[in-house]
Design goal:
Strand content: 15-25%
Distance between the termini: 55 Å
Structural class: alpha+beta
Shape: elongated
Helix content: 40-55%
Largest sheet: 8 strands, mixed
Number of helices: 14
Oligomer: single chain
């Protein structure tokens, strides 16, 4: 069980109480272990992942803790009319009873929670929901307190050895590398104004207005967007965006529709189709840079175009490895979670949704995906956050159980490897990337990613494989980091300086200067 902060639950004690009592809460090395309390612990399941726990501490244990606390303070207790440490015990108890009771309460809570953790297999996944200030040490009778805690569900681990797994394979061609080269050059290209009509792949500077009937819901101003098949927002998509905008010119307006997801933040519009109006301010063409020596040095300290192509080959191999991992993961977890029909608490799903988003982004970055690909995946996760988070949590519980049974652990080398991959993608130093991850509290997310990958690799070692062709996905969607339906509950975003490898989210910024 995750421990309650002893300083927190003992903070109500006043400065008047002697310091000697603190020694009872910090046992000396080699001291005899404290005798266990005769706790009465009632555990009530509220759901697969929720437990309500009622703890009763008998009077004998309370009196024993009070007696020990007063006994340890007698030599230093100050009572008017007596020298320090010379006052009668009854007077000391009378003068300091309130303060000592508050300190003993803290010790009782810490010790009882520790004893419950040792004697009950709860597998907590969060801190206890508990207010220590609401608990008091009674003058007579037992002390009773209650708390709620989220735990890993209890389940029978399915058989994971010998699973049939399809594995995508591909030998990357020169044409594959050429295509990725164009994408990389496009990120460093220059957008130049174009007087004629727009074509697929061109860029438009747009004012976008979303309406439900005659009511304006939200708007986006001067957004630079590439003309592609699908325009993805955090809460929905405009399908057929390329057909809608093909041939449009500056000064014209086109009207389309956006389909919002069932998880859209605006509850009144969930699942609805709303109107989308696109006012074209400017049409732009992308002008690619030349592969000069200075440009090659700028984008990655490459000496020759061949070095750049080798780096692209390596990136494609990482994408293939990622797809092999993800394809295997999907098949493996579909089999393992087939019977995982537990109901997960809504509060847990809401709290974990950001963690799942961060985990997915870290995985994509270390695998060499482009900024637009990552934004598309972010939007997909946001659009189906409850379903995605519930599935990911169930998967995590199962993989964590396998890791425990197979004694799979993380090591410092694992973190060095992951951070090195992130650093290579972002152009930052590994030391800076590590500092950013630690600052944002993402090391636990990285740890889960490492453990889960090791478990998947173990399952794959025992799997039966069938090779299938790996098809590179078409680059046919453009992502906008905004909700179309408005009334969005904002998921905290990292500052650009604190997010390893994160490029600015506006389309015009990831394509270079205009």
């Amino acid at each position: 069980m995750a421990p309650i902060d002893e300083e927190e639950i003992g903070s109500a004690a006043t400065d008047e109480a002697p310091d000697a009592n603190q020694d009872s809460q910090d046992p000396d090395a080699g001291a005899e272990p404290k005798p266990e309390m005769n706790l009465d612990v009632k555990i009530e399941p509220r759901s697969a992942c929720e437990r309500h726990i009622t703890v009763t501490i008998p009077r004998d244990d309370i009196d024993r803790y009070l007696d020990n606390a007063f006994g340890e303070m007698m030599d230093k207790a100050v009572v008017p009319g007596f020298r320090a440490g010379r006052a009668p015990r009854k007077l000391v108890q009378l003068r300091y009873r309130k303060e000592v009771a508050e300190q003993v309460k803290g010790t009782l809570l810490v010790d009882s929670l520790e004893q419950i953790s040792n004697s009950h297999d709860l597998s907590p996944i969060s801190e206890p929901d508990f207010d220590p200030t609401a608990v008091t040490v009674p003058d007579s009778g037992p002390m009773v307190f209650e708390f709620d805690i989220e735990v890993r569900p209890d389940f029978t681990l399915p058989n994971w050895k010998g699973l049939a797994i399809e594995r995508p394979v591909r030998k990357f061609s020169e044409q594959d590398i050429d295509r990725q080269m164009q994408d990389i050059l496009g990120k460093h290209g220059r957008l130049v104004p174009h007087d004629g009509p727009a074509d697929v792949g061109d860029y438009l500077t747009l004012n976008i207005t979303f309406k439900d009937g005659e009511n304006v819901i939200s708007s986006v101003n001067e957004e630079v967007i590439r003309v592609r098949g699908t325009l993805s927002f955090r809460d929905g998509n405009v399908v057929g965006f390329d057909k809608l905008m093909k041939g449009v010119e500056a000064g014209q307006t086109r009207s389309g529709q956006a389909k919002l997801t069932p998880d859209a933040p605006n509850e009144a519009l969930r699942g609805k189709t709303i109107a989308a109006e696109f006012e074209v301010l400017e049409v732009k063409k992308l002008e690619l840079p030349e592969l000069t020596k200075s440009f090659l040095e700028e984008i990655g300290n490459f000496e020759t175009p061949g070095d750049l192509r080798d780096a692209i080959q390596d990136m494609l191999q990482r994408r293939l490895s990622y797809e092999q991992q993800q394809r295997a993961r999907r098949q493996i977890l579909a089999a393992l979670t087939e019977a995982a029909n537990w109901d997960l608490p809504p509060a847990l799903l809401k709290r974990q949704s950001m963690r799942e988003l961060e985990r997915a982004v870290l995985e994509l970055r270390r695998s060499g995906f482009s900024d637009n690909d990552i934004r598309l995946r972010e939007n997909e996760l946001r659009q189906n956050s409850r379903v995605n988070t519930a599935r990911s949590l169930k998967e995590h519980f199962i993989l964590e159980r396998i890791a425990e049974e197979e004694k799979i652990e993380d090591s410092p080398k694992d973190y060095d490897h992951e951070i090195d991959l992130l650093a290579r993608q972002s152009g930052e130093s590994p030391r800076r990337v590590r500092a950013q991850l630690e600052k944002r509290g993402l090391m636990d997310t990285l740890r889960n990613q490492i453990i889960e990958r090791k478990v998947i690799e173990l399952i794959m070692e025992h799997g039966v494989f069938k090779d299938v062709p790996f098809e590179l996905e078409g680059d046919d969607a453009e992502a906008v980091n905004q909700a179309a339906g408005g009334e969005e509950v904002e998921i905290p975003q990292a500052e650009n300086a604190g997010d390893p490898g994160e490029a600015p989210h506006r389309a015009e910024q990831h394509t270079g200067s205009h």
